[in-house]
Amino acid sequence: MDTQTKLDKIETYVKQKFYNDPTGHDYNHMKRVAKMAKKIALKEQANPFVAEVSGWLHDIGDKKLFSNPAIAIEEMNEFLSCIDLSPKQVTIINEIISNVSFRKGKTPHSIEGKIVQDSDRLDAMGAIGIARAFAFGGAHDRLIHAEDKEFKDTATIQHFYDKLLQLKDLMNTKTAQEIANDRHEMMVVFLKQFYYEWNINEKKSD
Ligand code: ADP
Ligand code: NI
Asked: Are the beta carbons of 13 and 6 closer than 8 angstroms?
């Protein structure tokens, strides 16, 4: 099986698993992470195939998305050997997937894993990152923003301070760092405008 056919089959597999996710973890998130991982891998002289495949599959077995993560991983590994990925490639991909998540606080060992982690974090930043945060908040019945203590900590604006504004300092690769700086700036501009519109009577500050 040639490389492009393998990638097409992986795309179809992911599409069928994630098409309807309303929390910002849909098929198009996987597609952006896969394409970004390939782009960074080519710049960083890493293996673009391993980076792209792991980008497509990075959220398989995530416990907030799968009721039985172990079975999801087992099924994915069977699928990967059916499309002729070598046992060595499957092992590398598994190591990457088990270490990319922000919540777990780990860094994958391989350069391709570091690239996939960067790509996943980049997708939580910038204009798309803002859209995903509010999609996640809405799907979890959270407020956009609140001033009273009772709701403030769980409102989506708080998530920018808890996580999104820290992401630019967590990039593993130089290529991702450059993209992250741009996306970070976009979120800073967004927040400034947000508060300006929220506080109707205040003057716009620099
Ligand atoms: P990971 O899958 O790396 O552990 P998460 O699932 O925590 O990361 O985050 C993935 C996406 O969901 C990001 O776009 C992130 O902003 C969004 N998200 C996660 N938690 C929240 C939250 N409390 N409020 C708003 N968005 C969130
Ligand atoms: Ni992800």
From this structure: no
